[in-house]
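input
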Amino acid sequence: SFLAEFYSHVKMFITYRPTYAYAITGSLATLILAFVLIRFQPEQKTETVHLQPTPIDSSIVLAQYKAQERVSQYFQKSRTLLVGLANMKTDDAANFDVRAEKIKARTLIREARFVRMQPINNRTERLVNDLERILIELANLEEANDIPNVELIRSGIHQENLLFKIRMAEASFDTSRRVARERIY
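output
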């Protein structure tokens, strides 16, 4: 019947073409072996570790973010004060008054103490020192309309290139704050 006829064809194929028979047998053996290895592979237990920030870590990051925010605000307020001072008209001595700027300078001097306690690089530390020097000069003006000393302060701002340095520090702290904000959320 059919099986007997199939068997005779296989026997004749193996007898007359043994290399093909070996190739087919080897391929089938490889296929069966691969199937057995894949099917009966021992299961590996994989542990998934879910790292969640501890409350201490997030509070530290939050404190760092708030400190960086405060330092950035110090630079922003200093820049605003110095730009206002640099653009102030000194033509009219009778209406010239820097009392509000003196008060703001005193506030920024106190804030500079906080900034110095933060982990800042050498360039930023030098900038804070230069700013503090200018702010002290402004805060210690004897009169509210001391135009010659205001001009001296303005020339110091220009010579030290403080406005540019402040912008660079602000950009640096904005990047740090952005990274810290991403770590918090």
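quick obs: The first helix runs from residue 2 to 16.
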